[in-house]
């Protein structure tokens, strides 16, 4: 039961951070002079961040919450983190982490199903 509570709390914290990031994107970042591609990257990161925060809440109820939660959290950090970083700095240095993060998100969803 401890693992599921940890994953549930992670989901709640991640959801709060996703809403905060979305508010920043809506009120700060989107009105900046950044190009459309960087704005799109930010919006994609925020959308996936939010969706997978909700998935963490569901992962807390699966058979192996720590495994699913670790996969989803790692995937969000790598996928969303790379996109957020690129969008905010204009530096694509972490972009190679995004496909790995996306793969972890897929495996995280599969872990919820198992």
Give the topology, please.
Layout: H1 2-27, H2 36-59, H3 65-89, H4 97-113
Helix pairs in contact: 1-2, 1-3, 2-3, 2-4, 3-4
Question: Would you give an account of this structure?
Answer:
The protein is mostly helical and 114 residues long. The chain has one domain. Helix content is 81%, strand content 0%. It has 4 helices and no strands. α2 runs parallel beside α4 and α3 (65-89) packs antiparallel against α4 (97-113). The longest helix has 26 residues, at 2-27. It is elongated and about 45 Å long. The two termini are 17 Å apart. The mean pLDDT is 88.
β-strand percent reads under 5%
Shape: elongated
The total of helices stands at: 4
Main sheet overview: none
Instruction: Please tally the β strands and state the result.
Output: 0
Supply database-style keywords.
114 residues, mainly alpha, elongated
Summarize the structure.
The chain is mainly α and 114 residues long.
């Amino acid at each position: 039961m401890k693992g599921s509570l940890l994953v549930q709390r992670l989901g709640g914290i991640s959801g709060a951070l996703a809403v905060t990031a979305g508010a920043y994107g809506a009120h700060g970042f989107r009105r900046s002079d950044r190009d459309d591609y960087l704005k799109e990257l930010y919006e994609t990161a925020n959308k996936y961040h939010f969706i997978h925060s909700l998935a963490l809440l569901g992962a807390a109820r699966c058979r192996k919450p720590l495994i699913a939660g670790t996969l989803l959290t790692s995937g969000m950090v790598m996928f969303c983190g790379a996109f957020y970083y690129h969008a905010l700095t204009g530096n694509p240095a972490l972009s190679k982490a995004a496909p790995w993060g996306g793969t972890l998100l897929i495996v995280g969803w599969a872990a919820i199903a198992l």
